[in-house]
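Suppose you are handed a protein chain with no further information: no name, no annotation, nothing but its sequence. What can you learn? This example shows the usual starting point.
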Amino acid sequence: MPTDTPLPQTSVPYHQLLRGPRRRWWKPLLSLLLVVGIGGVLGMLIYGAGALAHYLGFTALGRVDEDLSPLSMLTLDLVLASSIVVAGLATWIVHRIRPRYVSSVIGGVRWRWLLRCLLVITPVWALYLLVGTLVDPPASGRPDQWVPLLLMAILITPFQAAGEEYLFRGWLVQNVGAFFGRPIVGLISSTVVSAALFSLAHGSFDPWIIGSISTLAVAACLTNWRTGGLEAGIALHVVNNVTIGVLTITVGGYAESFVSTESTGSPVEFVIGLLVHAVAVALILWQARRTGVQRLFRPVTSQLVMSLRRKCQTAIPVSTTAYPMAHSAPVTMSE
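A reasonable first move is to predict its three-dimensional structure. Written in structure tokens, the prediction is:
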């Protein structure tokens, strides 16, 4: 394997994929500037397109600056979804590692594994929200423009949730983890930073709200570490956002479901959320053991060795049956 490859030359967990031979201490800082720059440009373009659509007479979905209007929610979701592109570009430009390695240690999304995670944890959230709605019914009804909002919750919200995972559990975790040689130190440090920034980004400083949001962040970091990619965290985030969105849009409580600077939580809500995420993580890790999902990055040399070993093990065995030797006639010397 060439020594100038940007990828590690030894097997490493997901959060240390940027610790290759070309690693430099300043690269995560430069990558941060690039994320802010590219993200800012994409954000302005998306919001500008929304404002232009309203100016040209497309008023059915409301205005960009109108709270909780379909158009404002669409532009916000698209900005967050664009984080998938931002994370990939920052990793490729600065670290010279292909964007697909932000997805997983194998270099790409493992779609079957993602689908399995979604199928396993969706019933947990459905039961959790159903019981919560029966015990504490929403105070407000469904929004006026509930049909376009419902379509967005089903079609666009998964990409919004995935975008946040690529930013906070992908790009951020890998860049923080690149600073630490010991995997466990890198894991703890990147998880703390990811959970803190992810929670504060939602705007509320209430300790129980911060704790509840951090629960999702920590669960995603742990499952990503144990499964070698973002798929499990994406599943957690998508199921959480989509089920809450669909329920509050159709039943009621849509406005109250969003976290703002005035949002407050409670110890009971925090504990219940913690238990739900613990059950989901346990189910994901159970499925990871059953399927043998790859959790470590394997360099090209390691992959070649493993491939050769598998071929040798499956090769047709050479027969060891002994056969009697044929006796030839005595050789005589002729003159």
